[in-house]
Design a protein that fits this description.
CATH superfamily: Butyryl-CoA Dehydrogenase, subunit A, domain 3
CATH topology: Butyryl-CoA Dehydrogenase, subunit A, domain 3
Helix content: 40-55%
Order of helices and strands: HHHHHH
Number of helices: 6
Number of strands: 0
Distance between the termini: 29 Å
Oligomer: single chain
């Protein structure tokens, strides 16, 4: 339905034996105990894997929302409504949707860039990034996707019946951003709960394990 050009596929190898030394545990990634980190001095490799991955799959959603905004602006400057034959750009309700969507997308993008810049600065200085800070990074990423979906929905709703035709590019932004939101790591409820637990100091359970290893 969405992201049809991404090439994401499942590959199943039946009857294959995987030796222990070829495996990698999520808990090792959480603890930043990845084999490559022992030999790669780059600042990027000091970050937790989940922190990088969360942003890698959130950034395209922000970009898709930006594309939807550009597409709507370009198509609505001269487009007229089916009823009343009024220019869409002059419609106050359409104007408010655009204002809300633009604010959401700009806020999501700037928050992501600011947070990641901070993470890179900390690791470059050799400082430790707390689990609570990593949880906030995870929440910022998932929330950016949530805001991006909301922005695209507003633009799609303001595009009228023409939006459902395949030759209209805004329907592709709509499908793609919803496909991105469906990824488990882009769940804002789970990411928000993880952040809140870490912020309140209840992130580690009674067994000493993290409540969510994807931070």
């Amino acid at each position: 339905m969405g992201l049809s050009g991404s090439g994401s596929k499942d590959i199943v190898v039946s009857g294959a034996f995987v030796p222990e030394y070829r495996t990698h545990k999520f808990l090792d990634a959480y603890n930043r105990d990845n084999p490559g980190q022992a030999v790669n001095p780059g600042a990027l490799y000091r970050l937790a894997w989940a922190s990088v991955f969360a942003y890698a799959i959130a950034a395209p959603a922000v970009a898709a929302a930006m594309g939807a905004l550009d597409c709507w602006r370009e198509g609505s400057r001269a487009r007229r409504t089916a009823y009343g034959h009024k220019i869409v750009a002059d419609d106050p309700f359409a104007q408010m949707r655009l204002a809300e969507a633009a604010s959401a997308v700009d806020g999501a993008g700037q928050r992501m860039l600011g947070t990641f810049d901070e993470m890179m600065r900390l690791v470059a200085e050799g400082r430790e990034i707390s689990v609570a800070r990593r949880a906030r990074l995870r929440w910022d990423a998932a929330n950016a996707v949530q805001l991006s979906v909301h922005a695209v929905d507003l633009m799609f709703e303001s595009s009228g019946g023409r939006a459902i035709f395949q030759e209209n590019p805004i329907q592709r932004y709509f499908r793609d951003v919803h496909a991105m939101r469906a990824h488990a790591l882009n769940n804002p409820q789970r990411a928000g709960r993880t952040f809140a637990m870490a912020d309140m100091g209840s992130f580690i359970d009674e067994r000493g394990f993290p409540a969510d290893i994807f931070v």
